[in-house]
Amino acid sequence: MSRLIALLPGDGIGPEVVAAARVVLDAVAETFGHDFEFRDGLVGGCAIEATGEALPAATLELCLASEGVLLGAVGGPQWSDPAAPVRPEQGLLALRRALGVYANLRPVATHPALYGASPLKEHLLEGVDILFVRELTGGIYFGAKQRDADGASDVCSYSREEIERVLRLGFELARKRNGRLTSVDKANVLETSRLWREIATRMGRDEFPDVRLEHALVDAAAMQLIQDPRRFDVVVTENMFGDILTDEASVITGSIGMLPSASLAQSGPGLYEPIHGSAPDIAGQGIANPCGTILSAAMLLRHSLGLEDEASAVEQAVQDTVVRGIGTPDVAGRERAVTTQQVAAAVAAALGTRSPARAIA
Ligand code: IPM
Ligand code: MG
Q1: How far is the C-alpha of 119 from the C-alpha of 270, rounded, in Å?
Q2: Which domains, ranges and CATH numbers included, belong to the chain?
Q3: Which residue in 149, 172, 176, 266 has a CA-CA distance of 20 to 30 Å to 211?
Q4: C-beta of 92 in contact with ligand 1 (< 6 A)
C-alpha cells in the first residue's frame, strides 16, 4: 500500500529545496522498498496568486489525507505589504493550527566540518547538541489582534492544557536524551510565563523527578546561547520566544540552511519544514542549501511514517556529504560549491551505498 506524503513547495527557494528532498525520498523508497505517493499542494504567496487564499481548502484537504506534510517556505517581497488583506504567512499559521501541530521540534547541532562557517569561536562549538521544543499553536501568534487609528494590540494567552501538553513532551524528550530540560519564560514580567513556570515546576516534581529541570528567563537564555551553547540540552518554550531563540541558535551551526524541524500533533499528520525562510534573494539560482529540507524529510520518515532506520540513514547520508565537503555556497564556500540538485544527488548516492539492502545485494 502506498503512503501519501503531501508536498507544499511554497515560495522563493521552497520549490528547489522540496524538489531536492523528493530526490532523496525517492532514493529511500527504492533502496528500502517502499511505495511513497507524492501529491503537491499550494500554500503561501503562490496560493494567493492562484486562488486568492494563502491556504486553499484543497491544500488543507490534501494535508489531512496525508501521513505527513513536507513544506518548503512561504513569503516574498511581492506579498509583504503590511496593509495587504492576505499574507503568505497566514497560510502557514492556518495550516499549523488546522493540523493541531502544537509542538515544533528544532534540533540544533554543530558539526566539525562546518565550524569555519559559524560566527562563534571554535572552542564554543564542540559538542553543541540542543533540541528546541517550541509551542506552536498558541500564545501571541494566535491571540486576538486589534488595530485602530491610535494603536494596536496582540493578546498573548495560554490555557493550562496548552502549556501542559508541550511541557510534557519536553520532559519526555529530555528523559530520552540526557535527563536535562531548560524551560524558558519571562516569569518576571508576564502572567502567561508565571503560569508556565508554575506548571513546569509541578510537573517536574510530580511526573518527572528524574529530569533535571532548570528555568531560564528568555533574555538571559538568549545571551547564554551565544556565550555557552553547550549548557543547553532540551529547551522548551512558548511560541514567540521559540521563534526568536531558534533563529539565534541556528547561526551557531554555521548555516540556517542545514536545520530541519518537525511539528507534531496529538494525532494526525505532522508538518515538516526547514527552519529557513523563502530567501527570495537567491531563489531560482540553484544555490539554496537543501539539507534543512532533506533532514526535515528524515524527521517525517521517523515521526509520521515510523521509519526509524530510513530516517537515520538519510541523516547519516547528509553527514557523509557534509564531511566530504559537498555543499552549497553557504557551507562549502563559493569556490568549491555545487548546486542544490547536486547536493541532493550526493545525499541520495550516499544513501544507496550505506543501505542494508544494497549491502546484501
Ligand atoms: C518560523 C517562521 C514563521 C513563524 C513565520 C513565517 C510565520 O518564522 O517558522 O519560525 O514565525 O513561526
Ligand atoms: Mg521564525
Answers
A1: 32
A2: 1-105+261-361 (3.40.718.10), 119-253 (3.40.718.10)
A3: 266
A4: yes
